[in-house]
Write a structure and sequence with these properties.
Layout (H helix, E strand, L loop, with lengths): L2 H4 L22 E3 L3 H5 L3 E6 L9 H14 L4 E5 L3 H13 L2 E7 L14 H9 L3 E5 L3 H12 L5 E2 L5 H7 L1 H10 L5 E5 L4 H15 L8 E7 L4 H4 L21 H11 L2 E5 L1 H15 L5 H15 L8 E6 L7 H5 L12 H7 L3
Parallel strand pairs: 2-10, 3-4, 3-6, 4-5, 7-8, 7-10, 8-9
Antiparallel strand pairs: 1-2
Helix pairs in contact: 3-4, 3-7, 4-5, 7-9, 8-9, 9-11, 12-13
The chain binds ligand F0G.
Amino acid sequence: MGVIARYREHLPVGPATPEVDLNEGSTPLVASRNIGRALGLKHLYFKYEGLNPTGSFKDRGMVVAVAKALEGGSRVLICASTGNTSASMAAYAARTGVRAIVVVPSGAGRAQGAPPEIALNKLSQALMYGAKVVALKGNFDFALETVRDLTSHYPVALMNSVNPHRIAGQKTAAFEIVDELGDAPDYLVLPVGNAGNITAYWKGFREYHAAGRATRLPRMVGAQAEGAAPIVTGSPVANPKTLASAIRIGNPASWEGATSARDESGGLIAAVTDTEIISAQIRLASSEGLFAEPASAAPLALLFRLVRDGKIDRDAVTVVVLTGSGLKDPEAALKNVEPPIELDGDARTLAKVLKL
Ligand code: F0G
């Protein structure tokens, strides 16, 4: 079952909305075995969004946005993306037989013929699903500005999270967490890039609370990367930099949604360094068996710091959202682990090398 079927009564869909799904959503909420214990947190969970059909949380919002675009008669879909949105849009466009155009940043100082600034596996997804991919010179913010400009002049449906149907679909992740825990958590910790997801989660928690499905609201805790932290510093970043390419964004479209979520919930948005991100990514994989992409490790890095600073109550229920699979960006991960041992030999030499 996809998110439209599961949460139909909470979504802007009706009898005229075409049925679309890839069985997205219903992702596992994995209880921590080791990190929670090490931090002294009794109730730490990971919402593993990497298990969505295209490997990220984007599928939740995309399925609703594509269904609504089809309902409105659109035949051409477009988005600007740091990779995951484009992979998701291309998949749902392929499934429903409409045209997909993807605009990804290729970087400001990029040499002719060099690869775009997005993770290779995300690019391969968009290409395999049959999208037309344009690597536009400049960063993500410029790509989004260009796509918004284009959709205001041509009959092409804008599928970025400024499309409210994306937010509507993405809020279902908050519903799932409440449905599984029986109430809202105390803290919801997630990465913030273009800021659609934090906006969507906050909307979801508020709606469920208003409907009597939860007795409380979580504090919303957002993590940005230090070189791409406009919401933390309070002003746009002209040239955002971080190895977490998914959140390499200098002027988030849902800026206000993020600050409202933060302020209304009594939460916070803070920045973590790339070094902290890498170390959280490795620790998550090697001590929990959960491989998430760098952007998804940013909230865990922030949690480590908040616990160290005594800012998280040990009895609190904390959910960290792992927004995308580690398989999305293996190149980033492989730079930071030991390479395989090269060996030409038999069991005895193998045992020797392994010091068994
Ligand atoms: N994590 C991952 C894996 C992402 O791909 C993104 C955004 C975010 C976190 C941040 O979410 O933008 O809603 O604040 N990726 C977008 C894209 C920008 O184009 O795929 P956000």
